[in-house]
Structure formats: structure tokens, C-alpha cells
Automatic annotation (TrEMBL):
<feature type="signal peptide">
    <location>
        <begin position="1"/>
        <end position="26"/>
    </location>
</feature>
<keyword id="KW-0732">Signal</keyword>
<dbReference type="Pfam" id="PF06521">
    <property type="entry name" value="PAR1"/>
</dbReference>
<protein>
    <recommendedName>
        <fullName>PAR1 protein</fullName>
    </recommendedName>
</protein>
<dbReference type="InterPro" id="IPR009489">
    <property type="entry name" value="PAR1"/>
</dbReference>
């Protein structure tokens, strides 16, 4: 009980510190962020920031931060994710781009659905909620499945959560002669 209480206090303190830091930083432009703050940040225009890697002709790798076309909820604008949430949710600040692929990994989904992440890290949860929805999966349902049958939850994502129903009435197939197209 005491550990739950202390972790809740730490989460509230981390969130408060993050919000205070946001006020000090002013309006965020993704292009102004360095690679250590880019991933999981949201600009003043509510666009999510993404880290990109470019390889120059010399072979040198250069990392840049830019605004994506993916919008976050308006209450998240001007937001840089806290180190606490990055750790609690199992994400990596060096992530390149934005992808739903990590939702297929059971270990990641367990961390995302854990109380320290799901209850106290709205930015990361909002991002993966949107990514899951794009795959036809409802994140709360996936988290519920995570508590029970992990394989079932993963199979829902792999199939985009949609399964075509079978025919209501028997379907009668008729054979037609195969005709190849002829071009004159």
C-alpha cells in the first residue's frame, strides 16, 4: 500500500514538474528540439514531433526533429514527455518515426497498459490509442485482453481487429470458362 502511495506521489510530482517546465520553455517547435527531447513531444500546433535519421553522402548519420501530420489532443500541445513516462511506458526517445509495430510486442503492451503508464502518461497513451485505432483496435480492449489472453489481443492487432463474417446463406458457385484477354 505504501509503495503504491509513494509511486502515485512521484507520478504527480513528475507531471507537475513537466507542466512547470513546459511553461518555462514557451511554445514548442519540433524543428527546435534536439534528438533527446524530440520523440513523444507535441508542438504548439498540436502536431506530434518525430525523430528522423538522414544519411549524408559521406555516410554521416544526422538526426533531425520535425513535425508530423499526426495531431495530438489539444490539451497536449507544447508538451515534451517526461523521463518518468518514457521509462514507465517502455518507449525509447531514440525512436524513429511513429509506428504501431510495437503494439505487436507483448512486453511493450504490458508496460503501456500498466497503471504507471496508462493512468499517468496521457501523451503516450493518446499516441498509441490513435495508432491502435488506425489498425482497427480499441486500446482499452487490448489492455483488457492483455490482463487475460495475451495471444488473443495480439491476434486482433495482426488481423487489424476485423474479421469478415461468413455468408448467411450458402453461396452457389458456378463454373465459367476461363477466358484470357485478347488484345488486337
Amino acid at each position: 500500500m505504501a509503495s503504491r502511495f509513494s509511486s502515485s506521489i512521484l507520478a504527480v510530482l513528475a507531471l507537475t514538474l513537466a507542466l512547470c517546465t513546459q511553461g518555462i520553455l514557451g511554445e514548442i517547435a519540433c524543428e527546435d528540439l534536439d534528438q533527446d527531447k524530440c520523440a513523444f513531444a507535441v508542438s504548439a500546433t498540436s502536431k506530434r514531433c518525430v525523430l528522423e535519421k538522414q544519411v549524408r553522402r559521406s555516410g554521416e548519420e544526422v538526426y533531425t526533429c520535425r513535425a508530423s501530420e499526426i495531431k495530438a489532443d489539444a490539451y497536449l500541445r507544447d508538451y515534451v514527455e517526461t523521463d518518468h513516462c518514457v521509462s514507465a511506458c517502455g518507449v525509447d526517445r531514440k525512436s524513429l518515426g511513429i509506428s504501431s509495430d510495437s503494439l505487436l510486442e507483448a512486453h511493450f503492451t504490458q508496460k503501456l497498459c500498466s497503471t504507471p503508464c496508462y493512468e499517468y502518461c496521457p501523451n503516450i497513451v493518446d499516441l498509441y490509442f490513435s495508432l491502435a485505432a488506425g489498425e482497427g483496435v480499441f486500446l482499452p480492449k487490448l489492455c483488457e485482453a492483455q490482463k487475460g489472453d495475451v495471444r488473443r489481443g495480439m491476434s486482433e492487432i495482426r488481423s487489424s481487429g476485423m474479421v469478415a463474417p461468413g455468408p448467411i446463406k450458402p453461396v452457389k458457385f458456378t463454373a465459367a470458362p476461363a477466358v484470357s484477354p485478347s488484345y488486337y
